[in-house]
Amino acid sequence: MNGDDQTFPRTARLLCAFDYTAVFETCDLRAGSKHALLLTIPNPSHSRLGLIIAKKNVRLAVQRNRIKRVAREFFRSTSLKHPRDIVLLAKRDLAELDNQQLRVLFSTLWQKIDRAQKQTNHQ
Q1: Do 40 and 113 touch, CB atoms closer than 8 A?
Q2: 3-state class of 97 per DSSP?
Q3: d(Cα 97, Cα 67) in Å, to the nearest integer?
Q4: For residue 81, pLDDT beyond 80
Q5: For the chain, what are the domain ranges?
Q6: Which residues of 70-100 are buried (b: 16+ CB within 10 A; e: fewer)?
Q7: Residue 86: what pLDDT?
Q8: What's the pLDDT tens digit per position in 19-60?
Q9: CA atoms of 90 and 25, how far apart (whole Å)
Q10: Could you say which architecture CATH assigns to the domain 10-122?
Q11: Is the pLDDT at 72 greater than 50, yes or no?
Q12: 108 exposure class (CB count in 10 Å sphere: 0-12, 13-18, 19+)
């Protein structure tokens, strides 16, 4: 397996506070569950992911890093039809999920965003 295609480049990440603020202030699509919330806005060039996993909600660094790793992997391997800036906001019980449950959760949230995006495009 070539390591080059397994990377998560800086161009695929929300890097500064301004990027996160833009998503929070102008969010047009949301998908939520009891464990996490996805907020998105359109991006004309390419999709980018931002992660907010507070120590208050996920106590152990090992758990926070695991959640980030699974989220990045899911984002890298799955794409939306139209590019968007996406923020994943972790809620309290997210650390209780194992990796497979995290993938299922992210897939469900992704599908909600995809459906909502299709509905807004048809209107």
Answers
A1: yes
A2: coil
A3: 9
A4: no
A5: 10-122
A6: bbbbbbeeeeeeeebbbbbbbbeebbebeee
A7: 93
A8: 999 999 999 999 999 999 999 999 888 999 999 999 999 999
A9: 18
A10: 2-Layer Sandwich (3.30)
A11: yes
A12: middle
Question: What is the residue-wise DSSP string for 35-94?
Answer: SEEEEEEE-SS--EEEEE--TTTS--HHHHHHHHHHHHHHHHH---SS-EEEEEEE-GGG
Contact 62, 26 (CB under 8 A): no
Q: How many Cβ atoms sit within 10 Å of the Cβ of residue 57?
A: 19
Single-letter code of the amino acid located at 3: G
pLDDT over threshold 60, residue 1: no
- Torsion 39-104-55-15 (CA) sign: negative
Q: Which residue has the tokens 């397996």?
A: 1
